[in-house]
Design brief:
85 residues, Arylsulfatase, C-terminal domain, two-stranded antiparallel ribbon, 20% helix, single chain, alpha+beta, four-stranded antiparallel beta sheet
Length: 85
Amino acid sequence: MEITSVSIQKETKDNSRMIGYAEIVFDNCLKINGIRIIKGNTRIFAAMPNKKMQDGKYKDYVHPINAELRKKIDDAIEEAYNKAD
């Protein structure tokens, strides 16, 4: 599965680690919207779209199953974020 495009929308909110949103497309046939871009201690990372459940916990709509895909997504979003205006 290859990442074929990444779109970034930067956000600026006071006292927030969230610094934007991303959309990512895989193999020109699967698009994931609503990925939050979070500023971590050493780098930025992707927080997948989720929904708050009745018990107060959050459940991801979609998420990578293995560390390899997680790293690929984080790296692609970080690269696109750094290039975005």
